[in-house]
Structure formats: C-alpha cells, structure tokens
Amino acid sequence: MDEHLSHSSLKSSLKFKNNELLKKDFFPKTKCIHSRKIMNLCDFSEDEKEISLFEKHATDCDDCQKASIAARFYLKMTDEAIPLFRPSSEMLEGLHTEMGEIFSRLNFKNAEETFTQKWAWLKKTEIVVADFFNILISWKMIPVYLIAGILFMFLIH
Amino acid sequence: MGMSEPFEPHIQKIIPELFSFGYALIPDDLQAGQLVIDALASFSALNKEKLMELTDANDDELQKICFGEIKRQIYRNMFQIGKRRCEQLPAICQEKNKFQAFYKLSVSKRAILFLKQKALVSLSDIEFITGIEHLEIISRLHTSREELVSQA
Questions:
Q1: Of A23, B65, B132, B145, which shows the fewest CB atoms inside 10 Å?
Q2: pLDDT at position B12, please?
C-alpha cells in the first residue's frame, strides 16, 4: 500500500473535536488486542522476537495493519513538533574553544588513577605473583628444598 | 594555548547533539550553548578519571562503554542545570515559532520526548538522565505526545 495515500486517507478520516486531535482518533477501539499495544511495541520493545512475531501476525490482521499505519503517522506528527537545532559553525567553533579552555584549566596529570590503570597494575601484579609460585612449585626447586631440609635437620641436632 | 587533551576529539564529536538537547530545554542559542559548557565543566571537574579512561582504553569495546557512560552523565548534568534555569528564567522558555506547542510542555516532558524521539536514548538511560521512574516516563511520554498532537 502506498504510504502517502494511506496517511492522507487516515488524515481525512480523523475526527476533529473543538479543533483538537486526540490520540483515540488515531487508534479507535478494535477487536484485535495486539493493535492496542502497538505504541508500547514501537517505543519500548527491545525484544526482536516479539517484534518479528507481531510483524508476522500483522500481515494477516487488518486491525493491526491499520494501527501500524496510524502509529507511524502519529509518531511522524509528534516528531515534526520536536525541534532538532544544530549549532552554526561559528557557534560550534566557540563551543570547541571554550571546551578546550575548561580542559586546559584542569590538571589531568594529577588525576586519580583510572580504572584501566588500576586494572593494568592488578594484571601486572597477578602475573608476577603467578610466576613466583610457578618457580616455587617447579622441579628445579627440589634440590634446593633437599639442601634446605638437610641443613635444617643438621642445625636441630 | 596549551596542548589539547587526547580525549578532546571524542567530546567534540558529541557537542552538536548536546547542543540540540540544550535547545530542546531552553530555546535560545546562547543559553543552549552555555548549558553545554556548564554541564561539561561540572562533569570534567568531578570526573577527571572518567575522561582519562577514555584515553587509556585500548579496546574499542571498552572505549565505547566509557564514552556511553560519559555521555549519559553529561546529559544528566544538562537536564539538572536546564531544569533550574527554566525555573529561574520562565520567559526565555516561551518560543513563538512553530515549536510553540513543544515549549508549552514542562521541562521534564520536553526532555523525555527529545531523548526518546530525537536522541534515540533507551528507557533505562532516560531514567538515569531525568531521575524519573520508568513507569512515570512512559506515562509522561504518552501524555506529552497527546498534548503535542492536540495542538498540531
């Protein structure tokens, strides 16, 4: 179905009350329960399985197809009413300069040890300790332990 | 001027979107710019080590996590400062152009709508930025959309 046509037909079918459009004009009561929760699905569903199941269902359900078009139109309408201003190049340059000044005033060399630095230090320590124990438990150390044992016995007696 | 910090380019990249959020809170070029600078200044003064982490992180994945965390925190600072500024300067928050309906909404509703529809921020992040409970966010999102459409 042509999206533009469906939008315009939807727009012309909307009822105006005191020149006000209401959400229920977009989403009239339907028999299909899935069409009623379509906005929640659009907004907050992060579960792809749920979305694909709905899409599968919507191919056979007239109510859900109409609700999908209405939801798209409704979201487009609200989207157009929200401003998205980008800074001019002059403004952006000014902001970059000010940001640079803020960072230059802060002394980052004396900053607390970062998590990644602490992590690197811990890793290094772990390697040193593991190496130390590996040497202590190795076959090479057996003669050393034997000599130490003999010396100890000799000293006791 | 001294040498720039290695994490500066990362922060520079997000300035346009921060400015857009600032403008959604306060419809004035200079005020929106000031909001970005104030939020950045308060963030960097208190979280030097987080900025340093961005430089130290060798792994792309780790850098992405650090950057996401920083962005969330700056958005949060902007919201808190912007909310107070709107209370202090109510006249400045009345836009007379085609976005009049949007600026008639409360600051928190404007922030939620902008973050959800323009910045494509997740529900849990909106919760963190605005400090509003998630059920309340869903409710405000629906009512603010309704208000916007009814005035269209």
A1: B65
A2: 87
Amino acid (1-letter code) at residue A123: K
List the single residue in A with minimal CA-CA distance to B50: A114
Tracing tokens 């900053």 back to the chain, one arrives at: A111
ipTM attached to this prediction: 0.86
Instruction: Please say whether the beta carbons of A85 and B32 come within 8 A.
Output: yes
Look up residue B47 and give its two tokens: 């979280």
Tell me the nearest-neighbour CA distance from A53 into chain B, angstroms: 22
Q: Tell me which chain B residue has its CA closest to the CA of residue A20.
A: B150
Residue-wise pLDDT tens digits, B33-70: 999 999 999 888 887 777 777 766 666 766 777 778 88
Cβ atoms of B56 and B10 closer than 8 Å: no
Give per-residue pLDDT as tens, A67-79. 888 888 888 888 8
C-alpha span between A4 and A76 (Å, rounded): 12
> Which residues of chain A are within 8 Å of residue B8 when distances are taken between CB atoms?
99-100, 103
Domains of chain B as residue ranges with CATH: 7-151 (1.20.140.160)
Looking at residue A1, its pLDDT comes to 42
